[in-house]
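Field: sequence (string)
Field: structure_tokens (string)

Example rows 1 and 2, in order.
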Amino acid sequence: MKISELEIRQFEECDRKAVIDLWQECSLTTQQNNPNKDINRKMKVNPELFLVGCVKGELVATVMGGYEGHRGWINYLAVKPAMQRQGLAKQLMQFVEEKIAQLGCPKINLQVRSSNSAVIDFYAALGYGDDRVIGLGKRLEKDC
């Protein structure tokens, strides 16, 4: 079943608790990433690309898009577990991809844990492929 009445809009401060609850329900939060700090950081850069999806007024999905002038990025794509596999993530991805493309972005990157084969398959179905690169990171600020 596909839910077509997904309302996609920009994040608003009143969404904060529902967003964090959703991320926790989807196991997207880690000890290294404080979700409140992540939201605060996002609101300083491309806040118009921090999107939420609602069905009948209930926040059920999120995505953080970004573009720094070279590549676009996708973070925090989440759909309420009870509503997954109904086309919501695909709708949200298409919407954020269009917004990023409108900024002149030539390519979008995202990172998925190599053990998360279901999510890798989801992104592959949307046209994303393995760039055969190794993701490296360095924390400049500790969140905990």
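Row 2 begins here:
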Amino acid sequence: MNLSLPHRATAPAPPPPTDDAALIEESLADPDRFAGLFDRHADEIHRYAARRLDDVTTADDVTAETFLVAFRKRTRYDLARHDARPWLYGIASNLISGHRRAETRRLKALARQAPERAAGFEERSAERVTADALRPALAAALARLSSAERDLLLLVAWAELTYEEAAEALGIPIGTVRSRLSRTRTKIRRSLESHA
């Protein structure tokens, strides 16, 4: 005797949204769907925060807070923007600004570190062309930038945002991104040349 219950037809799970805007829109009706945005971008935001703060624990906190702020502000998200990364980087950059003094102290300390000297001529020659030899000078140059200049430069260099995405992340016009980045590069170049 077979006493199995008849199977009820269940609706198949909806396919995952193809872009971030759709996911955010779905989260307005079903808040659990917002977890998909976290799954897509948390690792990237965490890597950026960890590089900026040089502290994994603080980067964990910044990442968690970034997504908490994003969740709370999701009703104001512009659904015409299919990629939420610039929005998330903007939130993360604002949170990192709370740690700005520590970042500047860390960069200044790194700038005071002399590069290790290699023993032989071949090693010294190789050392001159490595990034490690430039690290203290670069840290000093970054420490001298304003927070707005440093945010923009690192969003483009480390987070690899386009100019348009950086403008969106920082809430500034694209022309400001271009001119600020040009001035910042000039400052960095002059600073590195003075250390050469």
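free_text_note (row 2): The longest helix spans residues 174-195.
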